[in-house]
Amino acid sequence: MNPVKAAYRPVGLLTGTVSGLVAGAAFRRSWKSLRHDEHTWSATDRERSWREIWLAAAAQGAVYAVVKATVDRAGARAVHRVTGTWPG
């Protein structure tokens, strides 16, 4: 295994955890702002339709994917700046 790739593994684990936390917070904040509701809809929420549940899940997934990609890319660029080698 490439030494830079091996060294990046713990960085990737840390940034993955951080991106999950940031994505959750970003989604909750945007949900509260857009829906004026403290809590996101749950799949087991009896009062919501399938469409509402799917839309909430899709929005949450999109926010998570964008945040994760942003954090992963920033981590890879930082490793590249430090080592001169791309970790991927």
Description:
The structure is a single chain. The chain is mainly α. Helix content is 76%, strand content 0%. The chain contains two helices and no strands. The protein has helices at residues 3-35, 50-83. The radius of gyration is 17 Å and the shape is elongated.
Quick structural gist:
The chain is mostly helical. It is built from two helices and no strands. α1 packs antiparallel against α2 (50-83).
Describe the secondary structure blueprint for this structure:
Blueprint: H1 3-35, H2 50-83
Helix pairs in contact: 1-2
How far apart are the first and last residues' alpha carbons, in Å? 11 Å
Number of strands: 0
User: Which geometry do the CA atoms define?
Assistant: elongated
Structural class of the secondary elements?
Answer: mainly alpha
Unreliable residue stretches: none
Q: Main beta sheet: strand number and arrangement?
A: none
Task: Give the amount of beta strand, in percent.
Answer: under 5%
SS summary, helix count? 2
Q: Over the alpha carbons, how many angstroms does the gyration radius reach?
A: 17 Å
The H-and-E topology, N to C, reads as HH
How confident overall, as mean pLDDT? Answer: 86
Helix amount, in percent? over 70%
